[in-house]
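User: quick one, sequence for these tokens?
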């Protein structure tokens, strides 16, 4: 399989965003994360902050998730909640960005949007070094040390709920990914190097779950 798209789900404070952005800089491949929100916000004429609040309202209820997916698949978007409309719009934007060529996607259930596309490698970035994770949260986001763990749990829960609400899959179930990288053990640069190898000429030849780096 020739790698064309890399989707990255990541733990808060794992450095996943930095990995995606640095990979983009080194390869020249476009990277989309917040840009997805900005594009949808422009289309919906709302603020990115409003969209983020909608995402926070996503629930991990199984029945809610099934309802949301059924409405989206059936095309009955008029019956969707605000959260559902945002999700459908994000998925549309991701596919539109992907149509422009090779790309790196950060979060927003990009793996679901591209599940029918060829050349997709789904990656999960974790960090088992709790001290390194706490330090990154403090330094990169300006979160006080006393609040770092609380904020980490909040954002991980938000990402897990949003992922489940729209895919009915567990966000941190590694079986959902082709590659799992531990930035705490490997370091940011090593993670970027591994992913950069996937974008080299000749692409990637692998089957799902062939990769586990930790």
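Assistant:
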């Amino acid at each position: 399989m020739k790698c064309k798209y890399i989707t990255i789900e990541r733990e808060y404070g794992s450095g996943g965003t930095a990995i995606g952005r640095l990979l983009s800089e080194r390869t020249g491949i476009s990277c989309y994360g917040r840009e997805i929100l900005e594009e949808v916000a422009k289309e919906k004429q709302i603020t990115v902050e409003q969209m983020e609040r909608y995402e926070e309202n996503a629930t991990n209820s199984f029945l809610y998730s099934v309802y949301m997916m059924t409405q989206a698949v059936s095309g009955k978007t008029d019956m969707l909640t605000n959260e559902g409309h945002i999700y459908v719009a994000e998925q549309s934007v991701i596919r539109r960005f992907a149509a422009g060529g090779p790309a790196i996607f950060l979060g927003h259930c990009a793996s679901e949007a591209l599940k029918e596309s060829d050349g997709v490698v789904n990656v999960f970035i974790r960090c088992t070094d709790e001290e390194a994770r706490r330090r990154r949260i403090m330094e990169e986001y300006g979160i006080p040390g006393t609040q770092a763990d609380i904020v980490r749990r909040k954002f991980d829960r938000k990402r897990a709920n949003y992922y489940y609400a729209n895919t009915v899959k567990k966000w941190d179930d590694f079986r959902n990914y082709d590659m799992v990288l531990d930035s705490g053990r490997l370091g940011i640069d090593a993670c970027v190097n591994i992913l950069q190898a996937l974008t080299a000429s000749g692409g990637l030849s692998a089957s799902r779950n062939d990769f586990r780096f930790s």
